[in-house]
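QA checklist item 7 of 12: single-chain prediction sanity check.
[x] sequence parsed
[x] length recorded as 158
[x] structure emitted
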Amino acid sequence: ELLTAAIDCIGRAGRALDGQFNSVTPLQQMSAHHANSKPYAVLDMPDRLVLYKPPGWEVDGGGDDQNEDPAEEDDGLLSSFLQHYLPLRRWVLLHDLDQRYGFTHRIDKPNSGLVLAAKSYEAHFDLLAQLSMGEIIREYTVLCHGLLPTNHCEVNER
C-alpha cells in the first residue's frame, strides 16, 4: 500500500509540473539513418524515449556538468542533441539541469549504448522510482580486441 501511494504521489507531482509547461506531445521523428557518429531515437514514446549514444558523446547532467547554455546539437553532449530537436517552450525537463535533463542514467563517454530519457516530469519521476526499486534492469556487453587471460570472470552485481 505504501509503494502504491508513493507512486501515485510521484505521478501527481510530475503531472503538476508538466501541466505548467504543457510538455506532453510526441517527439518529431529523429531519423535512425544518422551516421554512427550521431545519436538517434531507437524508441520514441509520448513521454519518454530510448536513445542510441555513440562513442564520444557524453550523457551530461550530473556531477560537475554545467550545460546551462546549450551549445550546438553536435557539441558531443546528449542534452544539446535533444534540446536541438525538442525546444524549451514544449520540453522544459530537457533543459532542467536539476533533473539531469531527463536522463535516467549515464554511460561513460568512450562507450556506446542505449540511454533512457524522460520527456516529461511525470515520466522522469516514474523512471527514477522504477530504477530505485530495481524494476529497470541494465545489461552490459563488453567487446574486447585481442586475447583475454584465462582467469577472466563474470561480474554479476546489482
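[x] summary fact logged: The longest strand covers residues 48-53.
[ ] second reviewer sign-off
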